[in-house]
């Protein structure tokens, strides 16, 4: 019965369908890494970033392959992660508008927090997501910090100020002014009396919350400061940002700074190894897909010796030139063509068949994401031959690419296997052990890899449901699909109602060189996939009177002269070309397509 009740929510909003082209196991970061968390007890590093995947790595340098596992559920950039509950729980925040709670040891998602109050139960533990509203920010918040005791929260934003609250009462305590650009990083000391801020204005500021003012400004970077870390004693700050340089600065003496290293890309995040004091290493993530571990032991020795450069006018040599450990990212080279003519290579791969735009492509995560929208998903009709498919009976049927793709993405969903009116009969056959699929699964031409992520989401908004292609046959997934899949997808995948052909208007006239009488200018209409050969047949059968020899053109010599004069304006059409290809590649102008004909001289 559940399959007969249409969803109440999906029908009221515009829902798009997306899928990601990727490998089954994505072991390596495909894009920049936004967040890091280190579990020194288990020697594990968690990375999260722009490819939407959270990965777990072993930081044991003796392991040849550091990859442990991936945690996948987000559909957009993961902007931050926090390891809590003694390393048992990981919380992630994403641009897909969700906060997710993960079992950090086993690597599965325990809950997705979408609203202000969400309860979930797992392993006999109950959690409550119920944040209070801390109002006051006028612009987008880019950074947050809370002290360990949970008595102070500080936010930074494009408003260029720091706002401070008491989370216990939701009272706004103060607003701190001083930065001249976006505040990208914040840190609080344990008792919540001091705050460090890093800004796109290139400065680091130390604030006294008791005095409600800035007590020190550190100008060590040439460009914006995007990431900060501080030691337990809150005496030394590690900073990185757009200039790719990572410094260690003594907060008690602003002139004392050490250039630790210089990365190959802007620094997005840093994580101190706090397994010892002072910290032995610093993990650094950048806009590139690799993550580096830099040794800090030399820095401590350097500081102790007092052999540092406090003259900001002199260039400082980095203490480290090579990282201790690298967790490599991955970008695949498909083919190297070497040195050759670019235009010639395009011509080799070009086929003059026009297919209307029927999907959009997004590379935001570093992996190809294809999105289908109701407005243009069914615009692309092609012949099986042009699409590279062969028909068992040798025919050349017309195929709708968007419809075929939707059928392939949902081919494991049981609801697409039979007609709803046949369910009772199918259940009877199943009881008798004689169940057969009355309708073919999928589309009969191609399949997508079973591990392909399929995403249903609001247009330009949040994700409604994400699943793997092969999982749509599961009981829970099938139920959620019933609630999420929009009607325009149901029409194709369940009801098997393929869209109608697109029509194209055109005019048909004899060419001026033919000597034939100009016809009454009637506007014709046909499928945009109609081939030129069919138009030729129409001309011969309906227009040219082959039996009347008297109507053939006279003065052939004059015609030839006219032909020669206008030869450069004539494009002889390939009989196998369709009308939309003619209009797009040859007609190339506005208004209705006009085709001219003339008899071929023998």
From TrEMBL:
Top-level taxonomic group: Eukaryota
Single GO term (MF): ubiquitin binding
Alphabetic keyword roster: Repeat, WD repeat
Family under the similarity heading: Belongs to the WD repeat WDR48 family.
Gene3D superfamilies hit by this protein: YVTN repeat-like/Quinoprotein amine dehydrogenase (2.130.10.10)
PROSITE patterns: WD_REPEATS_2, WD_REPEATS_REGION
Protein name: WD repeat-containing protein 48
Organism of this sequence: Ophiophagus hannah (King cobra)
UniProt region (Disordered), positions on chain: 546-571
